[in-house]
Amino acid sequence: MSRRKSDKSKKLKGYLGIFYTILLLLIIIDFFIPKHPYFRWEGFPSFYAAFAFVAFVVLVLAAKYILRKIVMRDEDYYG
Amino acid sequence: MVNIVPPAAIFIIGALFIPLLKGRLKSAYMLLLPVVAFINILNITEGIHWVVRFLDYELTFGRVDRLSMIFGYIFIIVSFIATLYAIRVKDDGQHISAFLYAGSALGAIFAGDFLSLFIFWELMAITATYLIWARRTKKSIAAGFRYLMVHIFGGLCLLVGIFIHVHNTASIEFGYIGLNGLASYLILLGFGVNCAFPVLHAWLTDAYPEATITGTVFLSAFTTKVAVYALARGFPGTEILIWVGALMTAFPIFYAVIENDLRRVLAYSVINQVGFMVVGIGIGTELAINGATAHAFNDILFKALLFMSMGAVMHQTGKIKATDLGGLYKSMPITTIFCIIGAASISAVPLFSAFVSKSMVVSAVAHEGMAIIWFILIFASVGVLEHAGIKIPFFAFFSHDSGIRTKEAPLNMLLAMGIAAFLCIFIGTFPGFLYSILPYPVDYVPYAAGHVMNQLQLLFFSALAFTILLLAGIYPSEIRAINVDADWPYRKGAGAFMWFINKPMAKVGARINKTVFEVIPSSLIWASRNPGGALKIASDTVLLQFSGPKKRAEVEQRIKKEKEIYPGNIAKHWPIGTTVLWVTLFLFVYLLLYYL
For a designed S-S bond to B309, which of B241, B339, B477, B569 qualifies (C-beta 3.0 to 4.6 A apart)? Predict the structure, then answer.
């Protein structure tokens, strides 16, 4: 059982390794790609990466800690 | 031209023959209808067809131009897919209402005048309601009633708007309206209800997850997209739509993060995607309208695919809540792959369909230099990846193992999903086909290196955020709960109304009841025993109120005495003579009246 578990976590680490490598490549290649920004900030290196990361975190935290506090009710709230 | 009929007619008349057929013949017939309709539409030429005189007006059942045609194509394609998906359902009512629903959507798309538009509009609401009721649970019946009432409200707004518009312009032609005066606001409100404008949207997230497994696939395709078409026809370039659309893209993504019912997550996703289309219509440039219609075309396919994959999960396991699911990729690997293709398509992964359409709308926004709207749309794109790209497949097929072991979905469901998945990839990879049927000539290149790179960064770094939040245990785990939304006022409000009727109003009613039927009659009976005595008591009681303290005791004494002897001997107070006098008087009045 424990061997299977360690196999699984090894596999997960392998996937994560590939994933992080792709992220790194995306940031590096980004420098060499010609861009035609409509807005000034679109031209910043890896603007989309930074924006997406921050946006995702803000979205999830706001939904979890703010919206859920306001709107969550029991499943039989409406009867 | 002779052998061509209105597309709506094939579905609506065709639906009537469904109950007459049985077994394989019925299945073949139902699949054949959309095929015939598609061959038919390929042969329809642009222009005005099928004009019928009705009273003083001309109804136009076939205003065929590039805008109505693209919706016509996709409506027929998705009808075929959804019918294939539903082919094993043993409920004629569902099949008939699905075909009537698709047919009325086609009718609305090709309607050239307000009157026939309104008729098809209402027919859609009714047939869609049946697809919700057909699940036959307590919840679906209630949700269906709410759906119907909201749509009747929207339909009435539309109808009143049409009346005023027709009165003002003396024409029932449905063309560009634009915002100018009461009629246009009412029509926009009517369209807005079906389009799920914010605050008017709750019918969608309320009802779609309660409909039947196959019914939801139809529902997700038609009502909102017909509204998108109507807006594109009547209100292109109406600035307020830019903000309405931006709001639509942004608010549902927060709800989608915390929603437990995976079909309800997709319902929020419908609003989010329609928001992109509404923004495009609000901008109204050729690029923006092209983007809106292209995105409507694509959304119908990938949203159907996602609803089908969740429907397949529901069909096989009987469960749809994220808290009950997980680890299904082992049992349902093909459905998993199709779901991931749908997720990739909606998330605008390069080579998948939304990549070539959503970006047109975003580019149109950038082209107009609208920075705030642009930021909202990019933020919403991250949100799309969060709920539809990651959450749906992750919680259903991966995540923790729910222990559910089941079989793969039936072949017809897999085929339906397969066709939708193929089209999503095909359009994403070869956008030229889609671009060639858009309303305006297309001068847009989606596969520019910069665009691909930007999108890949957006997707991968959102995924990074997800990974980190998940591994850190911050990503919100699903909770068995519901979230209140804009339907709260009428769902709880209805309860409050019923309380008001049952408690305070019922008390007042009982009081009135008692006064009218008990107190007054019994006093009359009491008084009639001895009217003279009763009058005397009454006058003394009034007198009592005006008496000084000295006289008071005396009057009180008198009333007491009078009450004691009441009714007493009537004859004492009413001598025969008086009675005769009264009778004579009445007879005299009667005679007088008679001769007059």
Answer: B339
Asked if the C-beta of B145 comes within 8 angstroms of chain A's C-beta atoms, the answer is: no
Q: State the Cα–Cα distance between residues B528 and B355, nearest whole angstrom.
A: 89
Q: What is the DSSP string of B403-428?
A: ----PPPPHHHHHHHHHHHHHHHHHH
CA distance B378 to chain A (A): 8
Nearest to B388 by CA among B433, B424, B422: B424
Q: Are strands B482-483 and A72-73 parallel, antiparallel or unpaired?
A: antiparallel
- CB proximity list for B506: less than 8 A, separation 6 or greater: none
| Minimum distance, in Å, between the CA of residue A17 and any CA atom of chain B | 12
Domain ranges for chain A: 2-71
Distance CA(B346)–CA(B58), nearest Å, equals 41
* Token pair recorded at residue B42: 């390929």
Interface contact A34-B450, CB threshold 8 A: yes
- Decide if B354 contacts B347 (C-beta within 8 A): yes
State how far the Cα of B174 lies from the Cα of B226, in Å rounded to an integer: 14
Which phi and psi (to 5°) does residue B548 adopt? -75, 170
| A chain contacts of residue B139, beta-carbon cutoff 8 Å | none
In this predicted structure, the answer to whether residue B526 has a pLDDT above a threshold of 90 is: no
pLDDT, tens only, B57-78: 889 999 999 999 999 999 999 9
Say whether pTM exceeds 0.80.
Answer: yes
How do A72-73 and B47-54 pair as beta strands?
unpaired
Name the residue among B27, B150, B15 with its Cα closest to residue B86.
Answer: B27
